[in-house]
Write a structure and sequence with these properties.
Distance between the termini of chain A: 24 Å
Helix content of chain B: 25-40%
Largest interface: A-B, 18 and 14 residues
Shape of chain B: globular
CATH class of the largest domain in chain B: Alpha Beta
Number of helices of chain A: 6
CATH architecture of the largest domain in chain B: 3-Layer(aba) Sandwich
Distance between the termini of chain B: 52 Å
Shape of chain A: globular
Strand order of the largest sheet of chain B: 4-10-9-8-7-5-6
Structural class of chain B: alpha/beta
Mean pLDDT of chain A: 93
Strand content of chain A: 5-15%
CATH superfamily of the largest domain in chain B: Type I PLP-dependent aspartate aminotransferase-like (Major domain)
Oligomer: heterodimer
Chain lengths: ~140, ~425
């Protein structure tokens, strides 16, 4: 299993190939979104909507063998690409790792520059939601063990 | 209206007067097509602001020193210029506000609170901006009056037959826009005003989208109130006007209390100032009002009919270019429009389109444009909106169309 920081570095490398070209970067983000495994329609409920995003983002998570697996989707292609980056980073990680590792890749790839302030705030909300899932699973594990 | 000779404007020369246009956005030349949200300011407006603060800044009206004299004169000159701009009968019918939103709130609060009663009705249309919906909802709730809404047709025009049916002796206020910010539809306000007057209702016109594009003659229109925002007509943000018929403004109670709006104050009784000062409590936005005069002169010198002719050409060109692209759907295709075109692309969210166009330096607006009920009417969440000002060019529209085509090509591959 690749570590969170290893995946972050991978993403930074991939984006560096785009050489700061905004249009290509946005197209690339959307392409990543297209590759995100489909989320079951039944999971796209009001309860699973991430609050604080301008676009609609649905997210859910499950725990398997002490690792968390996320499913997510969005009604906009760019946001779907952004959430796919987070899913790629956090999927299969332990709650402890998700909670204790800081994300730095978005600063390195200059995300705010190409998604703007509002989407950056939405991105922060998605990250927070994933950490909340991690915290919930960690707490659940501690109570049951 | 008499036919007016149209002069072709030198757009390249006009563009040089707008410093903001001379820049790149995301490495591409800026193409600013978000003019219905706010348009850009010519150098003379920016210079007027600087000059005011560098040479003339003083509080107005009560000062007796030289600077106060100059500032007062400049401020009042804008009032006179605005009186001419909309052909108001009296200069004191021009009240400076923060813009259309404040103007509508002023009328809803002051006129509404004084003259609306339980069971009365206020009529607006589905085409309204939230600023011409919410203030009426608030006052109707307070006064137990009813808000009635004129529907729009599939091409985005007000349904006049429905309006006639909604009107009754209960109708006390009719508030509609001169032109729609989301669709660009120019409403038949003369007819609406005349019909509303037959039942004794007063009519407020939200002129936010009209002031830079359409001729306005409040006496000919016979509207009771007309609202304008400076920043949508090449002027600074944070100011605008409420025009009101003198007789109505005189019988309306003040909206806000404070300095400027009083004659005498004692702890037992305050008497209010005359028009227009009764409605201008506190130190006003002097600098922006002063600079607004330059925006008025800019429009006057170019000639509104010449500006409109250029913008109409841009709009027709946009319609032609965008309708030729598969998957593009135009929203709002009324016969008479200001230079605004909303559109959607099948299967692609408007946020994505806006963001992708931005990467090519193209600024458009995406979303519901503060007209959620109108979006609901069309069963959509929002649109992409391109809107034009005098400095836009056909080449910029070519770029817009090319950007749209690229997005579709990428998304549909």
């Amino acid at each position: 299993m690749k570590s969170i920081n290893f995946i972050q570095d991978e993403i930074i490398n991939e984006f560096s190939l785009l050489d700061g070209d905004m249009e290509m970067t946005v197209f690339y983000v959307m392409e990543l979104g297209q590759k995100l495994p489909e989320m079951k329609e039944a999971l796209k409920t009001e309860d699973n909507i991430v609050k604080g995003c301008q676009s609609k983002v649905w997210m859910t998570a499950r725990m398997e063998d002490d690792k968390i697996f996320f499913e997510a989707d969005s009604n906009t292609a760019i946001t779907k690409g952004l959430v796919s980056l987070l899913v790629r980073i956090f999927n299969g990680q332990s709650p402890e790792h998700i909670l204790t590792t800081d994300l730095y890749f978005m600063h390195k790839i200059g995300m705010e520059r190409f998604i703007g302030t509002q989407r950056s705030n939405g991105f922060a909300s998605m990250t927070k939601q994933m950490k909340l899932y991690a915290l919930a699973f960690k707490t659940q594990k501690e109570i049951t063990s | 209206m008499n036919a007016v000779a149209i002069n072709r404007l030198d757009i390249e020369k006009i563009r040089t007067q707008f410093p903001v246009l001379n820049q790149q956005a995301n490495g591409k030349p800026l193409i600013y097509l978000d003019n219905a949200a706010t348009n850009q300011k010519p150098k003379r407006v920016i210079d007027a602001l600087t000059k005011y603060y560098e040479r003339d800044n003083a509080n107005i009206h009560r000062g007796i020193h030289t600077l106060a004299e100059r500032a007062t004169k400049a401020y009042e000159q804008t009032r006179h210029a605005m009186q001419q701009f909309i052909s108001a009968k009296h200069v004191e019918e021009i009240i400076f506000t923060r813009g259309v939103t404040e103007s509508i709130n002023l009328v809803a609060s002051s006129y509404g609170r004084a003259f609306l009663n339980e069971g009365d009705e206020v009529i607006i249309s589905v085409l309204e901006h939230h600023s011409n919906i919410v203030p009426w909802q608030m006052i109707c709730e307070e006064k137990k009056a009813t808000l009635k809404v004129i529907p729009v047709t599939d091409i985005g025009e007000i349904d006049l037959d429905a309006f006639h049916k909604l009107l009754s002796v209960k109708t006390k206020i009719v508030a509609v826009n001169h032109a729609s910010n989301s669709l660009g539809t120019i409403n038949p306000i003369k007819e609406i005003i005349d019909v509303a007057h037959t039942v004794g209702a007063v009519v407020l016109i939200d002129g936010a989208q009209a002031s830079a594009h359409l001729p306005i003659d409040v006496q000919e229109l016979d509207c009771d109130f007309y609202c304008i925002s400076s920043h949508k007509m090449y002027g600074p943000t944070g100011t605008g006007i409420l025009y009101g018929k003198k007789a109505l403004l005189e019988k309306m109670p003040p909206y806000m209390g404070g300095g400027e709006m009083i004659k005498d104050v004692t702890f037992t009784k305050t008497t209010y100032n005359d028009l227009p000062y009764k409605f201008e409590a506190g130190t006003p936005n002097i600098a922006d009002v002063v600079a607004l005069n330059e925006a008025i002169q800019f429009i006057n010198e170019l000639g509104k009919e010449n500006i409109a002719a250029h913008e109409n050409e841009l709009l027709s060109y946009t319609v032609k270019k965008l309708s030729a692209i598969a998957h593009v759907k135009l929203i709002g295709t009324a016969d008479k429009k200001v230079s605004v075109q909303s559109f959607m692309i099948d299967g692609i969210h408007h946020f994505d389109i806006g963001q992708m166009l931005d990467t090519r330096g193209i600024a458009v607006r995406t979303g519901h444009h503060c007209t959620q009920p109108l979006m609901d009417r069309f069963g959509i969440e929002g649109t992409v909106r391109a809107s034009f000002s005098v400095y836009n060019t056909k080449e910029e529209i070519d770029q817009l169309a090319e950007g749209v085509e690229r997005i579709i090509k990428f998304m549909k591959q």
